[in-house]
Amino acid sequence: MGDQTPCAALSNTLNKVKPYLAMVSLQFGYAGMYIISMVSLKHGMSNFILATYRHVVATIVIAPFAFVLERKIRPKMTLPIFLRIVLLGFLEPVLDQNLYYLGMKYTTATYASAFVNMLPAVTFILAMIFRLEKINVKKIRSLAKVVGTAITVVGAMVMTLYKGPIIDFIKSGGATHSGTTTESADRHWVTGTIMLLGSIFGWSSFFILQSFTLKKYPAELSLTAWICFMGMVEGTGVSLIMVRDFSAWKVGWDSRLLAASYSGIVCSGIAYYVQGVVIRERGPVFVTSFSPLCMIITAALGVIVLAEKIHFGSILGAIIIVSGLYIVVWGKSKDAKNSETDEKSIEQELPITNNARSIRVDDGIDGPPKIVNIPAAKSPFSTQGT
C-alpha cells in the first residue's frame, strides 16, 4: 500500500498541472500559426480563403475522432443547440479569424499578437455580465483577478502606445523589410487596430457562448467538429462573396498549404477541443489568461523569421503583461481550491434531520394517497442494528 502513495501523489500533481501545460502548449501553437499565416498573406493569399481552408482541414481531421470516440456519450442534437453551434461557427471561424488576419496584414504579426492581450480583460468583463465569474471585493482572490486584468490591459496599452528605441537582437539585412513593414503599418494602422478590436470581441463572445453550450452539449470533440464544419460552410459563403477570382482558391505545395494545414489541425481542431475541456474545468477567463504568453513567443519568432524589429516598449509591456497574467492565474487557482473545499464539505454533510415530517405515498391502490408519519430521530448519528 505504501508504494502506491507516491504514484497517487504524482497522478494528483499531474491532474493539477495539466490545464496549465495544455494552455502553455496552445500558445506555442498559436504563435507558430501567426508567423506562418503572415508569410502566406504576404505571398498574396486571401485571408477569407485561408480561414475557409483552415476549417476544411480541421473538419476532416476532427470529425472521424468525434464520430468514433463519442458515439455513446454524444447528446441528442436539438434546434437550440444547433443554433448556438451556427453562431459559434460565425463568431470565431468567420468573424474573429478574418478580422484578425486583416488586422495582422495591415499592421505586423507582433503588434497583432500583442493586441490579443486584451482578450482576458474583455472575456473577464463578459463573464461578469453573464455571471460566469463571481466577484467579491472582500475576497483577495477576486481582487487579484480584477487587478491582474487591469495590469494586463495596461501592459497591452504600453506596447501599443509606447514604442521607444529599437532593440536589435539579431543584426541582419532585414532593414528593408522593416522599413516596408513600417510604411504599410503607418498607412493602415488605425484600420488594422479597429479590425483587431472587433476580432477580440468576437473571440471573447465565442468563449462565453462555448461555455454555455458545453453545459447543454457536453461532448467536446463532437462540438469541435460541428464548429469547424459550420465555420467551413459559413466561411465558404463569405469567401465566395468577398473573393470573385476563382484562381485565388488554388493551393500548391507552398506556404499557403502549410498555413491552411497547420492552422486547421493545431489552432482549430486541437485548440477548440483543448479549450473546451479546460473551459469546463476552469472557466473561460482561465483559458484567455494565457494569451499574453503567445505575444512573447510571436515577438521572438517575428525577429528570427520575419526580421521584425522589437522596440523597448514591447519588452516593457511584455513584462507588465506577464505580471498581470500571474496575478489572474493566482486568483483563479484560489477559486479552484475554494470550490474543491466547498464540494468536500457538502459531501461530508449528513442528510439527516431531527424534525419529524410527513410524506404522501401512492401505493398504487385505488383511492387517495396515504399520509405516512416519519418520527424524529433522537440522535443524527443513531443507527439500528440489523
Structure, briefly:
The chain has 386 residues and is mostly helical. The chain is 73% helix and 4% strand. The protein is built from twelve helices and four strands, in the order ααααααβαααααβαββ.
Helix content: over 70%
What average pLDDT do the residues reach? Answer: 78
- Would you tell me the structural class of the helices and strands? mainly alpha
Gap between N and C termini: 32 Å
Unreliable stretches (pLDDT < 50, length at least 5) are: 172-181, 346-359, 376-386
- Characterize the biggest β-sheet: 2 strands, antiparallel
Strand line-up of the largest beta sheet? 1-2
Number of strands: 4
Portion of residues in beta strands equals: under 5%
Query: Could you spell the SSE succession in H and E letters?
Result: HHHHHHEHHHHHEHEE
General description of the model:
Keywords: Membrane, Transmembrane, Transmembrane helix. By secondary structure, this protein is mainly α. Helices cover 73% and strands 4% of the residues. It contains 12 helices and 4 strands, in the order ααααααβαααααβαββ. The longest helix has 42 residues, at 175-216. The chain is globular. Mean pLDDT is 78; it is low at 172-181, 346-359 and 376-386.
Topology:
Elements: H1 4-42, H2 47-69, H3 79-106, H4 109-115, H5 119-129, H6 140-161, E1 166-167, H7 175-216, H8 220-242, H9 255-282, H10 284-288, H11 291-305, E2 310-311, H12 312-348, E3 357-361, E4 370-374
Antiparallel strand pairs: 1-2, 3-4
Helix pairs in contact: 1-9, 1-11, 2-3, 2-8, 2-9, 3-4, 3-7, 3-8, 4-11, 5-7, 6-12, 8-9, 11-12
List the main descriptive attributes of the protein structure presented here.
386 residues; mainly alpha; two-stranded antiparallel sheet; 4 strands; globular; disordered C terminus; transmembrane helix; transmembrane
